[in-house]
Amino acid sequence: MKKLFTLGISLLILTVLAACGGDENADASGKETIQFGATSGPYSDMVTKAIAPLLEEKGYEVKNKEFTDYVQPNKALASGDLDANLFQHGIYLESFAKEHDLDLSEVIIVPTAPMGIYSNQFDDIESIEKGSSMALPNDPTNLARALIILEDEGLVKIKEDVDPLRASLRDIKENPKELEFVEVEAAQLPRLVESEDLSLVPGNYALAAEMDLLNALALEDMPDQYRNRVAVKTEDLDSQFVKDIKEVIESDEFEKIIDEEFEGFGKPAWMKEE
Fold first, then answer.
1. Is 18 a residue whose pLDDT tops 70?
2. What are phi and psi of 138, to 5 degrees?
3. d(CA 184, CA 80)
4. Which range, of 7-11, 49-53, 62-66, 236-240, averages the lowest pLDDT?
5. Which one, 106, 161, 237, 252, has the greatest CB density within 10 A?
6. pLDDT in the model for residue 15
7. Is pLDDT larger for residue 55 or for residue 29?
8. pLDDT > 70: what percent of the chain?
9. What is the DSSP string of the chain?
């Protein structure tokens, strides 16, 4: 009986040691597989072409689930169905998490497709004629972005006491070319390049419509608040897999893939400063 008891204790110790040893490729939490989530299009491509291969070199298996809306990726992350997601800018992440009482945090900002001014009528900003029609996104966030571009290009002037990140058409104090603005849903803006003189198209919709970002008359100098970022549950911020995600995105190899595969994407401040 004593021998059986001793044998049982020995087996138990070996089992515990084996569990603690784990896979040498797993992080400190035992994670070997990272489940990403991204909206279909350029950011799903960024996961599969740029982030996943570099994480796989570190020994992880990376899976990517594509979404077609901007609600489920954060809910799936908060519920634990995802380990990380990539699809949203900082303003959206903050407001969504607050509205739905989710504890989510940013890991790192990534290169992002900029909004651009597109036209089949004019070759450059200087040739835009007075009274031209311009299509703009009608949602507040993208409209504010559009007005920042127009002001940067000298096409409008916004009132000084207005937060540029929250500006609307009523905040325009100067419109020297007397542009006629047409507000529509952002997804419709690529089509309006044909029917309007100019159209301000967010980068993700431009790419979805197979538009070349470099054909824009002007691309936005995007504030980092509007660049997309990798997000995780706040409780995971100090996990090894999150540190490894950040490390691969900060690597020279990642930037090289961005330069080759994501031409025209605007780089965040941290990447420009390197």
1. no
2. -95, -5
3. 36
4. 7-11
5. 106
6. 41
7. 55
8. 89
9. -HHHHHHHHHHHHHHHHHHHH--TTS-TT---EEEEEEETTHHHHHIIIIIHHHHHHTT-EEEEEEESSSSHHHHHHHHTS-SEEEEEEHHHHHHHHHHHT--EEEEEE--BPPPEEE-SS-SSGGGPPTT-EEEEE-SHHHHHHHHHHHHHTTS-EE-TTS-GGG--GGGEEE-TT--EEEEE-GGGTTTHHHHSSEEEE-HHHHHHTT--GGGSSEE----GGGSEEEEEEGGGTTSHHHHHHHHHHTSHHHHHHHHHHSTTPBPPHHHHT-
Whole-angstrom distance, CA of residue 258 vs CA of residue 35: 21
Most distant CA atoms of the chain, gap in Å: 98
Report the interhelical angle of 240-249 vs 252-261 (nearest 10°): 50
Contact call for residues 229 and 270 (beta carbons, < 8 A): no
Q: What is the pLDDT of residue 17?
A: 39
Q: Shortest CA distance to 156 belongs to which of 200, 193, 195?
A: 200
Q: Which of 186, 204, 174, 153 is nearest to 40 (CA)?
A: 204
